[in-house]
Amino acid sequence: MRGLVDWLDRRTGIRGLLHQALDEPIPGGARFAYVFGSGLLFLFLSQVVTGVFLALYYVPSADHAHTTVAYIVKEVSSGSFIRSLHVYGSSAMIIVLLLHIGQTILFGSYKRYRELLWLAGCVLFALILGMAFTGYLLPWDQKAYFATAVGTNILTEVPLVGGWLKQFVRGGTDLGTLAISRFFVAHVFLLPAAVFAFVGAHVFLFRKAGAAGPPVPVQPEKTESFYPRQVLMDIAFTAVLILALGLLAWLVPAELGPEANAADTRFLPRPEWYYVPVFQWLKYWPGSRAVVGIVVIPTVIAALFALLPLIDRGGERRPWRRPFSIGGFAVVMAALVALGVQSHVEDERDPAIARQLSVQHDAVKAFMSEAFEPEVAAGSLKVENAALANPVVAHGKAIFAAQACDACHGADARGTDSAPSLIGVAAKYPSGQLKQVIKTPNAKMSDGGMQPLDAPDPDIDALVAYLESLK
Amino acid sequence: METRRSFLGGLLAFGASTVGALLAIPLARFSLDPLWRTTSEVLWSDVGAAADFASITAPMKVQVAIEQRDGWRKVLSEKPVYVVKAIDGRPKVLSAVCPHLGCSVGWSDAKGQFVCPCHNGAFAPDGGLLSGPPPRGMDQLDARIEGGRLQVRYQYFRQLVPTREVLA
Predict the structure, then answer these.
(1) For residue A388, what are the domain limits?
(2) How many angstroms from the chain centroid is the CA of residue A365?
(3) Same domain assignment for residues B102 and B70
(4) Quick one: pLDDT at residue B1?
(5) Contact A383 B65 (CB under 8 A)
(6) I want to staple A28 with a disulfide (CB 3.0 to 4.6 A). Which of A53, A213, B12, B84 is the partner?
């Protein structure tokens, strides 16, 4: 072992590198308050790994995105688990990011010589929010589609270039397949590359400035190296993250809803929890005032936040002597929480909204319980047309229309609000049973308004043949 | 001090590798999924009611709908097959693809034999080779009767070889 290390050291200088990495002095000693940065780094790497693996199956295109994610979730071994890790990992990053920022503000460790370190962190904050926003669209289910439609609509409020900006981001006036390509490129190439670059800058600047230590100097002055205690604490926190994410992904797999349907005008979009406060905030700024609430106020808050080290410049780091920095951060966080709670309360209070949200919830559950249905490849034979080549089936289809079955069961038996789709109905009523229930519907069907079909036997047989061809 | 440090380092390395290996299990299962997936397995296609073929005297041409799985998509196509007179009650279905160069073999009522239009290969009503350049008789497809329906597994076979070899 020692020989191997010597051999490597002579060629790489690994001992010096390890010494640099591990023996960094931490003024005031190791603390659990310092674990969040390492935790974020771990979460980011976990997102990269799970993201790369998801890309083995994912196709960024409006006609395949949803099918490929459904394939990952329902068919591929460990697919649901890996996707859940990725989905919950994004939430975990936001939580740990807020803890990291909170600790930095509380300890005043953005001060003197750490302004650029703070700014690099602010850029990373924005990039992570961008990762969350761009990733959300990619599964192309209902909530992804409508939440992103709302999110990109906000861009129109930007003065002068708003409309142009929205069209640029969406790749058109509407949200379509070009939007998926754009969001995909941002999510897997541009933003991660920027995150890597800024993580490098952030860590470099951190090492240059050195650890800030506690806001109140510990007496007597003590300094401890990064290794071993701080390393152990970082690892302990990472282990908690792994355990929490793993258990969550295993016990409560992330769901996928039905495929995006732009024509569904009833759908109520609700963003991921970390964007709910923003979503609620937008409600208060209708019409011409929108620019104030959507552009001006957030820009001012973001600027104050980014420039915090230049505003709060004194050498004072004790929290109780910096009421404006700490108070300002606390007020913004409290406001975000209050907005989130308010949004939830409003959804619960309005019975129409609550009903629609529960319908959407049920639709997700129903889709998740369905078996995976492979996509019919382009250039495939149209099976229904092939079946109609059979004269009996064609006659059955004519009877389906003549007896007004399509009035309730819909054209091509695809179902309407008043009666279910009959695609695949033959599997439910094998050999002879189908004919039986057409002639004498069961109680449930009668309650739904189904009439017994009074027609000659050959006609009913043709109708059954037609229904059996619906797959 | 030095010993304690390297012991701790070893412990950390061991712990990290164990956790790493544990996390690698789902990733390996995920990426290796196509290895134990049988998506390329040919599904059974419906030919028609078995009773319809029970008493045929001459080979009967039927178009069957073929469904092939390819990952998250399925490819549907239609291929011609011949149902020929059953021997000892077992259904026999032949591929219409000529084992010579892959032309579509036709049944000639006048001659009472299968004739390939490309190079005049001729086959008996049961598919056996009679004359011409084909290296073997017409290829028999796996067939079965399920719930009164005749079903077939459509496959392709290597051309220009004397034995029937399934192509993947």
Answers:
(1) 383-469
(2) 17
(3) yes
(4) 47
(5) yes
(6) A213
